[in-house]
Amino acid sequence: MTETFKPGPDAVEIVERETCFQGFYRLDRLSLRHRLFSGDMGPVIHRELFVRHDAVCVLPYDPQRDVVVLIEQFRVGAYGKSESPWLLELVAGLIDKDEEPEEVARREAVEEADLQLTSLWPITTYYPSPGGSNERVHLYLGRCDSRGAGGVHGLAEEGEDIRVHVLPLEDALALMREGRLDNAATMLALQWLALNRTEVRGLWT
Length: 205
Hints:
This is ADP-ribose pyrophosphatase. Its EC number is 3.6.1.13. It is an enzyme of class 3 (hydrolase). Belongs to the Nudix hydrolase family. NudF subfamily. Helices cover about 20% and strands about 35% of the residues. The protein is built from three helices and eleven strands. By secondary structure, it is an alpha+beta fold. Strands 4, 5, 6, 7, 8, 9, 10 and 11 form an eight-stranded mixed beta sheet that branches. It has a three-stranded antiparallel beta sheet with strand order 1-2-3, with no helix packed on it. The protein has helices spanning about 100-115, 170-175, 185-205; strands at about 10-20, 25-35, 45-50, 55-60, 65-75, 85-90, 90-95, 120-125, 135-145, 150-155, 160-170.
């Protein structure tokens, strides 16, 4: 296996850090130096950092029926770049309180899809955009009973208007192959489930 850089305690020096914007999210500007692969300390560089709460994303899956539950909602980041800014995606939420990721997954499943998750299977954790954001995503598969799932949900006080879709797994994978599912968490979770479906159904049915 290829060895990667193992930083010591002095590998990064923060010369200056200032907050440029503070709202629900925060934007910081950092001036820093870091150790080079040669072992020398590099020059001072400047980077803007989008400071976000860590996120939790969960793909609700009904192993009895072999179907997944996706949600559809407006996403401002896709506005002007996609044919439609209403995206099909996972149930998701931010860890903005003193909560464990599993608690967030279960809470958001109720709020966004009116679903109770009876088990959670950790898939992975990852940085979606580490070049400019410190957000880390906790990705799960959640066991659910999809019978009766559907409708429009979400918290009105948070401006949420969320429609629930129940899809056979093969149909969801086809949408991904066609490019109609184009957000990272959804693609990662569906690909993981496609690879691990037999094991998951064996343990969850």
